[in-house]
């Protein structure tokens, strides 16, 4: 019979598929720290520990690669991300525990745990990238072991991930200025497969970091197309640029909350044609009305019914653009589209956030820009000089 972690009854259903939950690197670090502290203070081998997560799910985690000495114990817990496509899945998260002359639990990062190099993250510059909740979990578990064993001294706990530096290149860490390894993460202790909340939180973290670095105006691209266009086709300083994925509405709300003064969106028409209809999450699962909205904007621009019907039959926005160009209505349609985009972006939030937009096509290049786009470019370039 295989080992039961306590997650067997906890699943989610997404797109008619049943997906397993997993546990975070923070849970791994806390469990490894608990086991190592127990072994150090009792002298007895510990092969499994129980860990209550902030989510309220009790985990039962196996302890691997145990090394016991009189003054030092190290061991590991293997990360299981469930059915989430997680770069850290299968990684061993180690804790090495020694006694300390100073009271309390002292946590630091060893090899494979990244170091913070830029302000705006949960930990100060120079500290190990072990986030607040994992630190709290590690401290709580180790302190409980000390109480149970009647030990009144302190403990040093070093968290490491031997393959962390290799894994980190497949995470957000390089972009966030975390070098040398992965972050020890998790707010609930549990990994929810393909969690939108986790993606949105990563956007918020990056935006906060840019704000702490001095940004007041941000360049925002939904994805790789926008990033490439910004680099290759525009005279624009991208020091304070980032991706917002499909989360247009959430991005605007985050920006307002963080005190950002302006955002310049640069997007492929395939994403932002949806925004022209007030759609603030552009993922196809939420809405895929590109042809309908392109046809609506063409009709507003004066296209005849033959043109509009052909646009409605298109599969891609690039195909629709070709038709609009054929009917000599492309420029006017894009002008109308931009008006609608700006209208919905500004009505998403009730603040004086300056919002500009540039839309483009991979084939036709720049299609339209808001009236304030050029002035925003000047401000953005100026704040980086």
TrEMBL record:
The top EC class, named as a word, is: transferase
Question: Which biological pathway?
Answer: Cofactor biosynthesis; adenosylcobalamin biosynthesis; cob(II)yrinate a,c-diamide from sirohydrochlorin (anaerobic route): step 6/10
Under Pfam families, the record lists: CbiD (PF01888)
SUPFAM superfamilies membership: CbiD-like
Task: Give the family this protein belongs to, as stated in its UniProt record.
Answer: Belongs to the CbiD family.
Gene from which the chain derives: cbiD
Report the domain of life of the source organism.
Bacteria
Query: Known NCBIfam families for this protein?
Result: cbiD
Q: Name one GO biological process term.
A: methylation
Keyword Transferase in annotation: yes
Which PANTHER family does the protein's record reference? Answer: COBALT-PRECORRIN-5B C(1)-METHYLTRANSFERASE
Q: Recorded E.C. number(s)?
A: 2.1.1.195
Q: Which reactions are catalysed by this chain?
A: Co-precorrin-5B + S-adenosyl-L-methionine = Co-precorrin-6A + S-adenosyl-L-homocysteine
Q: What is this protein called?
A: Cobalt-precorrin-5B C(1)-methyltransferase
* GO MF annotations in UniProt: methyltransferase activity
**Alphabetical keyword list:** Cobalamin biosynthesis, Methyltransferase, S-adenosyl-L-methionine, Transferase
């Amino acid at each position: 019979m295989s080992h039961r972690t306590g997650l067997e009854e906890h699943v989610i259903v997404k797109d008619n598929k049943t997906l397993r939950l997993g546990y975070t690197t923070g849970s791994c670090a806390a469990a490894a720290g608990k086991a190592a502290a127990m072994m150090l203070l009792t002298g007895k081998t510990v092969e499994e520990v129980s860990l209550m997560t902030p989510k309220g799910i009790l985990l039962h985690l196996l302890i691997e690669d145990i090394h016991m000495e009189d003054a030092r114990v190290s061991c590991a817990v293997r990360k299981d991300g469930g059915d989430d496509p997680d770069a850290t899945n299968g990684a061993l998260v180690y804790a090495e525990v020694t006694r300390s002359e100073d009271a309390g639990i002292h946590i630091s990062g060893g090899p494979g745990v990244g170091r913070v190099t830029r302000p705006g993250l949960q930990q100060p510059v120079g500290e190990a990238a072990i986030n607040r909740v994992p630190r709290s979990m590690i401290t709580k578990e180790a302190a409980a072991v000390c109480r149970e064993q009647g030990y009144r001294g302190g403990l040093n706990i070093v968290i490491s991930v031997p393959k962390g530096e290799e894994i980190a290149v497949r995470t957000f860490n390089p972009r966030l200025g975390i070098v040398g390894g992965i972050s020890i993460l998790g707010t609930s202790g549990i990994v929810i497969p393909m969690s939108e909340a986790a993606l949105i939180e990563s956007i918020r973290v990056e935006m906060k970091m840019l704000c702490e670095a001095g940004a007041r105006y941000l360049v925002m691209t939904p994805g790789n197309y926008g990033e490439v266009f910004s680099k290759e086709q525009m005279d624009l300083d991208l020091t304070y640029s980032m991706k917002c994925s499909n989360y247009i509405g959430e991005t605007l709300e985050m920006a307002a909350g963080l005190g950002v003064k302006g955002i310049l969106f640069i997007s492929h028409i395939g994403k932002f044609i949806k925004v022209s209809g007030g759609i603030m999450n552009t993922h196809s699962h939420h809405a895929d009305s590109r042809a309908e909205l392109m046809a609506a904007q063409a009709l507003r621009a004066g296209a005849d019914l033959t043109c509009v019907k052909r646009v409605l039959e298109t599969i891609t926005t690039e195909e629709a653009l070709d038709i609009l160009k054929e009917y000599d209505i492309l420029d006017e349609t894009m002008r109308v589209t931009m008006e609608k985009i700006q209208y919905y972006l500004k009505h998403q939030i009730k603040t004086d956030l300056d919002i500009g937009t540039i839309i483009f096509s991979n084939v036709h290049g720049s299609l339209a820009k808001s009236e304030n786009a050029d002035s925003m470019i000047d401000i953005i370039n100026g704040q980086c000089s």
